[in-house]
Amino acid sequence: MDLTKKETLKQMKILTEFHSAPGFENDLKDYIKSEMEPYADDFVYNKMGGFYAVKRSENPNAKKVMIAAHMDEVGFMITHITDNGMIQFTNLGGVAADIWQGQRLKVKNRNNEIITGVVASIPKHFRSGNEGLPEIKDLMLDIGSESANEVRERGIEIGDSIVPDTEFIQLSENRYAGKAWDNRYGCLLAIEILKLFKDIQLDVDLYVGANVQEEVGLRGARAAAEQIDPDIAFVVDCSPANDMKGAQQLSGQLGGGTLIRIKDGTMILKPSFRDYLLQLCDKQNINHQYYISPGGTDGGEIHKANSGIPTAVIGVCARYIHSSDSVFDIRDYYAARQLLFESVKSLDNQQIERLQYS
Prior knowledge:
Shape: globular
Structural class: alpha+beta
CATH topology of the largest domain: Aminopeptidase
Low-confidence stretches: none
CATH architecture of the largest domain: 3-Layer(aba) Sandwich
Largest sheet: 9 strands, mixed
Distance between the termini: 34 Å
CATH superfamily of the largest domain: Zn peptidases
Number of helices: 9
Number of strands: 18
CATH class of the largest domain: Alpha Beta
Number of domains: 2
């Protein structure tokens, strides 16, 4: 099945503009599931909130392969509504405190409505010069209400979620900007990989889906891995690029291709899995780059589950992730999609056993 750039871009826009903070992924889950249904034989769900589409093999001895994205994005949760109608909040996921003043954020209220506000910022005219760096707990969201009662009349309460209010846009021929590319990249790839395998028989049972609450500590991944008990797993996630001043050693460069993540704060890629990916990149002429990260992905939990699950991250990098906007290169997405497609298509029982035990 062929996928057009127009289809991919339309899906990118829809997914990145979704409101899906950690713990509040249900609306996005329903959308992704609806996109996967025509290409899935079945679905499995876990009690954390994650779900996986299943494409079954005709091989009676098929091994199980897991492709894991995550649905959540960094965001906030409302903690207080002031008497004069301002909203205070705490972070959901790792964010810098000094980038939010003057930014537009959107609240999802109890009626599932989206309400936009602006994070308060002290004008230069009123600054003493001694303010220092803000803390998240000191920031306030202004939605134009004049009292706490007015805020609550708009369906907003303590515990509701907030994410950036950012439109997906094209910057140049190959580069785009939008919020939550970490990890709507993985959600998009999960949808498109099922489409690409629509008319292809695989030697493996393929489980493709997404976990919850990755941004607050990889919380949904273990439940999914223990439920599915895959023989091997691929994680599809977006990582920070550090190339604004040019290429930096193993820290991600836009346009450099898909990431071969050899080490991060939660997992070391098995040499046998590394070599498998590199051989496919060389054979298929897939643009790729080595990557090391101090952070982690759901692979950090998946690879430790049950008796151990060989896991590789097939990722992309983007600038300015965990902020109100990110910039990425669509060529990196295409490289990652091709590598994932070739990696799964090339698997059989013998290859999986090599990845498991060598």
